[in-house]
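Entries read sequence, tokenised fold; example below:

***
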Amino acid sequence: MAGLYFEEFEVGQVFKHPWGRTITESDNMTFSCLTLNVQPLHIDHEFASKTEFGKPLVNSLFTLGLMIGMTVNDTTLGTTIANLGMSDVRFPKPLFHGDTIRVRTTVKSVRESSSRPKAGIVEFEHEAVNQHQQVVAICVRQALMHKRIAHAQA
């Protein structure tokens, strides 16, 4: 399914994105090193083994990016102009190598853009759960979306 246009979103609409993604050690190491996040809690098994978690944690910014990325196909693929911001980002439970996440999205608000008559703003709440149905990440995202008629005229 391609992304939806502004007019196709309704407050309270829920998307249960159909795929899951198992996070590998390579995912976590590569992301942490590419972003120069040398926090040993993510990349050093020996260090992490002595923490309360006993093993490396998945980098929370990888989790955030993956969670939002997993929503794009159903919501904003080809129909978004830009992300305007993300807020209320939380990580209530840790993620570890081998965990699998699934994501659901709820439309929190829909409003016309005051500066762009051919666009509107949709506020999404994304929530990721692990294989035990524990919430591991939440974020509210605001996206500037094309209106169908305006996009068709472009």
